[in-house]
Amino acid sequence: MKRFGIIGGTFDPIHNAHLYIAYEAKEKLNLDEVIFMPAGVQPLKVNNIITDPGLRYDMVKAAIEHFSEFSVSDYEIEKGGLSFTHETLEYFKNKISTRDKDNELFFITGADCLFSMEKWKEVKKIFSLATLVVFSRGGINKSDMLNRKQMIEEKYNGKIIVLDLKELEISSTDIRNRVHQNKRIDFFVPTRVSDIIYKNRLYR
Asked: How far is residue 86's CA from residue 33's CA, in Å, rounded to a whole number?
């Protein structure tokens, strides 16, 4: 039996905090592999302007090249249309079950999702397919987060694990703003990611 983690996100761009979160999840949950999943079109963010999916995929691929325990999937990008978490998890559950039906799936995301989850489609199905793993983000009250966690678990008969991680003050929004302002970003992203950003004149 193996344990797989999926960490989804826009990754516009991927940065060092994403890598730290994935690594800590792998270590704390004893995961065999962490799969990065660049988002396709997210239903709750359809009006957001985001970078070409191919470039976002390339940045993730470049960022994880030295981590043998990490991989990247273009499933949501190639699928087309809106991306729903339950569909993504079902795809991967079927994929890993062909290897061993007892393989486990963990979906890793920010704890802010606990406050929007009831807007998601097929929440009960999500919990039937994977264990939800959340990490705290700035601005979220821990007591509120734990209360929300308990409510979601009870309402949807799910299991949620909270990762106790260092909070790194790095955000994709800040990185995009720094590039726009001609400020250095090499403190926050792997070198090959910054190379892709500058070569393609992203965030200008």
From this structure: 20
Distant-in-sequence, close-in-space partners of 81: CB < 8 Å, separation ≥ 6: 40, 41
Dist CA 160 CA 104 (whole Å): 14
Bridge partners (DSSP) of residue 133 are 108, 161
- Burial (0-12, 13-18, 19+ Cβ within 10 Å), 125: middle
Provide long-range contacts, Cβ within 8 A and 24+ apart, for 23-26. 23/67, 24/163, 24/165, 25/106, 25/108, 25/133, 25/135, 25/163, 26/69
How far apart (Å, rounded) are the C-alpha atoms in residues 100 and 59? Answer: 31
Contacts for 91-95: CB closer than 8 Å, 24+ residues apart: 92/4, 92/6, 92/35, 93/129, 93/130
Q: What is the pLDDT of residues 133-190, one digit of tens each?
A: 999 877 788 899 999 999 999 999 999 999 999 888 899 999 999 999 999 999 999 9
d(CA 83, CA 46): 10
Radius of gyration for the alpha carbons in the chain, expressed in angstroms and rounded: 17
Residue 60 CA, distance from chain mean position: 11
